């Protein structure tokens, strides 16, 4: 599993590449690959036990588990069409939660595996100010149709085809969350994250605990102060340098011509004097 990330100063983008045979069963998420990104929010939030709060489900709250918050993006593709965008949408965001009724790319927070909720929902009641800030899509390299799929094209390819899964996600560096349910990325700062994959091995449904991960603990995620914005600046700088070099060369050539003309005009002509009587 390969994970890549970049930002443009406003949004952060993630790309997950997973080598694996094509597996897809429409409507059954457990027989399709599923991925999740998890980020530390609270200072005491651990990688193990999804935040590590020791409170049971009936007593975990934002007070009893304060400091153990983790932010999770979870994408199950059983109802998601390849190449189409899922996640935050006007209908679910209007309801004030992190759900996605169309493709199950959801925005979740947790204190431990038993205390996991959609943004805006929880044991203390719901808060209508929340929303799903994530967007994402998926693809598999075995697909031969690149003009786009519709639901009737399911299962989109033949099962067992060799290839690579691609998952792309994005969200703003900062969100309007005021409930400690979203991680906030700071340019020049660092966050802690992990990535998980569930896969139906040999066609068998995966279980919640049977997942693969990039590491057995948090991985440092550094938000470079340059990012893609620096790349853009570098490109702009390169174009400016080329134009400046051409202008400088043209100016030097013009200056040389001007000096030559001025020299020709100003230099003595040394025309020999011929007396009138010799004409």
Automatic annotation (TrEMBL):
GO terms for molecular function: heme binding; metal ion binding. The keyword Heme applies. Coiled coil: none annotated. The chain crosses the membrane at residues 242-263. InterPro entries: Cyt-c552/DMSO_Rdtase_haem-bd. It comes from the Eukaryota. Residues 1-213 form the Cytochrome c-552/DMSO reductase-like haem-binding domain. Keywords: Electron transport, Heme, Iron, Membrane, Metal-binding, Transmembrane, Transmembrane helix, Transport. The keyword Cell membrane does not apply. PANTHER family: HEME BINDING PROTEIN (PTHR36044). This is Cytochrome c-552/DMSO reductase-like haem-binding domain-containing protein. It comes from Gossypium darwinii (Darwin's cotton). The lineage of its organism: Eukaryota, Viridiplantae, Streptophyta, Embryophyta, Tracheophyta.
């Amino acid at each position: 599993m390969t994970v890549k990330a970049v930002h443009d100063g406003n949004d952060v983008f993630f790309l997950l590449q997973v080598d694996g045979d094509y597996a897809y069963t429409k409507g059954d998420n457990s027989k399709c690959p599923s991925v999740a990104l998890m980020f530390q929010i609270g200072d005491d939030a651990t990688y193990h036990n999804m935040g590590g709060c020791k409170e049971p489900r009936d007593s975990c709250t934002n007070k009893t588990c304060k400091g153990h918050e983790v932010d999770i993006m979870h994408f199950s593709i059983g109802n998601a069409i390849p190449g189409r965008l899922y996640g935050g949408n006007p209908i679910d965001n209007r309801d004030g939660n992190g759900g996605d009724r169309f493709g199950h790319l959801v925005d979740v927070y947790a204190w431990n595996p038993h205390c996991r909720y959609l943004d805006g929902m929880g044991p203390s009641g719901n808060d209508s100010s929340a929303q799903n800030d994530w967007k994402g899509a998926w693809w598999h390299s075995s697909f031969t149709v690149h003009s786009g799929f519709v639901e009737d094209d399911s299962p989109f390819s033949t099962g067992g085809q060799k290839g690579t899964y691609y998952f792309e996600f994005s969200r703003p560096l900062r969100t309007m969350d005021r409930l400690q349910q979203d991680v906030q990325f700071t340019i020049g700062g660092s966050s802690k994250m992990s990535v998980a994959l569930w896969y139906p091995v040999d066609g068998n449904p995966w279980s919640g605990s049977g997942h693969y991960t990039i590491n057995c603990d948090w991985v440092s995620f550094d938000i470079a102060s340059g990012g893609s914005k620096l790349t853009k600046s570098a490109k702009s700088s390169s174009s400016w340098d080329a134009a400046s070099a051409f202008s400088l060369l043209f100016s030097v050539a013009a200056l040389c011509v001007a000096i030559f003309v001025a020299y020709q005009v100003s230099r003595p002509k040394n025309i020999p004097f011929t007396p009138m009587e010799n004409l």
